Amino acid sequence: MTKRIDMHSHFFPLITQEEAAKLDADNAPWLAPTADGETGMIMAGNRPFRPVTRPLWDPARRIEEMDQLELDIQVMCATPVMFGYRYPAKTALDWAQRMNDRALEICSFAPRRLKTLAQVPLQDVELACAEASRAHAAGHHGVQIGNHVGPRDLDDGDLVQFLTHCANEGIPVLVHPWDMMTDGRMKKWMLPWLVAMPAETQLSILSLIMSGAFERIPRNLKLCFAHGGGSFAFLLGRVDNAWRERDIVREDCPNLPSSYVDRFSVDSAVFDEGALRMLVEVMGAERVMLGSDYPFPLGEQQIGHLIDGHAGLSYYAKHRLSSANAREFFNLADEAVTVA
Prior knowledge:
InterPro entries: ACMSD, Amidohydro-rel, Metal_Hydrolase. Residues 5-332 form the Amidohydrolase-related domain. By secondary structure, the chain is an alpha/beta fold. It has a single domain (5-12, 54-329), classed as TIM Barrel (Alpha-Beta Barrel), CATH 3.20.20.140. It has 10 helices and 11 strands. It has helices at residues 17-24, 59-68, 89-107, 125-138, 157-169, 191-210, 232-245, 273-283, 305-308, 315-329, and strands at residues 5-11, 29-33, 39-44, 47-53, 73-78, 114-116, 143-146, 173-176, 223-225, 265-267, 288-289. Strands 7-8-9-10-11 form a 5-stranded parallel sheet. Strands 1-5-6 form a 3-stranded parallel sheet. A hairpin with a 5-residue loop joins strand 2 (29-33) and strand 3. Helix 4 packs parallel to helix 5 (157-169). The longest helix is centred in the middle third of the chain and has 20 residues, at 191-210.
C-alpha cells in the first residue's frame, strides 16, 4: 500500500540557451548549472530568474531525497516560468511538446515513483485540447495549467471549453498560480508570492463559482488548486455573506458559493496545523491532497510531516490526505513501493 504521494512538485529540465532560443532568444527560460552541478540558475534570456538545486532536474538526486523523506511517489509538473503563454500558439505548442517529452524522460528513471503532468499552449484552446490528449495518451497523469492567460481568468469561454475537454477525456487538471497581480507595491520580501499568489488562486476558484462556469462544466472534472486553494477557505464565509446580501454577487451564481466545494480539490501546502484543520473542515478530508511545492524553499521541507503529526486529524483523514485521494484523483496504481 502506498504510504505517501506528493502530488505537487516541480521539475525544470536541463534546457540549454540554444534550445530556449527556439522559443525566444531574449526571454525564454533555460538552466545554467554551476560547475559542481549541485545548484543552478534558471535564466530568462541573459537575466537571472531563480536559483535552484539539483533535484529540480536530476531524477537520481530526487529519488535519493524522496527516500530520505520516506516519500513513495511524486507527481511532477513544470515550473510555471515554462508555460510559454505569451508566445504564438504554434510556437508554444512545439515548446510544450518538447517539455512534455523531457518530463517523461525524467520519469523513465523510476517510472513507479515519478509521475508527471503535461503543460499545454493554453492561449489556443484547440491546440491545448489536442496536446492534453496526446500527452495523456503518452503517459502523463494529467495537465497543469496557469490560473489565467493574460487578462482571461478561468471563467473565460475558451478556458471553460478546455476544462470541459479534460472532463470528457478523463484528464485531471492542476491549476497553479503564476504571473501574479502586482502594481509595483509588492517590491520586497517575496510579497508577490506571499500576498498575490494566494489571491490569484482564490480569484481562480471564485471566477468559476461566481460566473456560473461550474454549471457548464461536467461534474466529473478532476480539478485541483495548488497551495491549499490560496486564501479561498479562510475567506469563504465572507463570500457566502456577500452572496446572501447582494444581488449583484449572486447574479450569475445560482447556489451558495460554499456549496461548490465538492467540485474541486486542493493540496495541503499551508504549513500550519490550524490552517490545515480549517482546510479539511471546509473542503472535506476527501478533497485535500498532500502537496509540497518541492524542491523550492517556500515548499514543505519535511514533506508529509504536517499531516502525519497533526493531532486534530483522524487516521482516516491522514490516510486520505497522504495517499488515497491522490491515487484516486490521478488514477495511480495501488502498488507497493519500496522506499530505502
